[in-house]
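Quiz preparation item.
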């Protein structure tokens, strides 16, 4: 009887240990993913700010020099 109880207890402890390890691993993975997402969001916000600043600067530059903008057409004459 004692032997059967010990086997049952050992099996339960092993099962609990596996479950606990899986939970800790899952928690670690989620934490790493959250950190990556946060880093990506910060980088995206920084790049968006840089892009908006550049677009505003370009718009100011084009407004100050309206004749400097190209028409975008190319001549078909190769000479």
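Solution:
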């Amino acid at each position: 009887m004692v032997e059967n109880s010990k086997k049952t207890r050992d099996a339960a402890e092993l099962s609990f240990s596996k479950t606990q390890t899986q939970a800790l691993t899952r928690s670690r993975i989620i934490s790493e993913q959250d950190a990556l997402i946060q880093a990506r969001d910060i980088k995206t916000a920084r790049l968006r700010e840089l892009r908006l600043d550049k677009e505003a600067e370009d718009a100011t530059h084009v407004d100050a020099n309206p004749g400097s903008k190209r028409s975008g057409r190319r001549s078909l004459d190769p000479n």
